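=== RUN LOG ===
request id: a7f3
mode: sequence -> structure
chains: 1
length: 117
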Amino acid sequence: MKFKTDENLPSEVVDLLNRHGHDAVSVFDQQLAGHPDQDVAIVCRYEERVIVTLDLDFSDIRVYPPQDYYGIIVLRPNAQTVVRIERLVTRALAALEDQAIARRLWIVEEHRIRIRE
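=== RESULT ===
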């Protein structure tokens, strides 16, 4: 699966995704850091990449309708530490074994994953 991490995520997330056999890049890899969310979303749609972010703007389905994207994952850690963020990404990867991400918004929290189509 292909992922793009937003600029608000540590580089360890890209490493984690790649170690699990996925094709992951960050917005930094493509000189998209500092660009508006809309630009990042357009590139992700074109590249068929799942957006992984801490940015709540991506959870607004009026602006980013899940059906228009390969997938959106918004991480909601209790504290924004590398360890907690990695834990949420690992939780999302485990859920991918049973759930489809395409055309869906996933809100990944410490104790649950909310999925919106």
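=== NOTES ===
The radius of gyration is 13 Å.
The chain has a mean pLDDT of 96.
=== END ===
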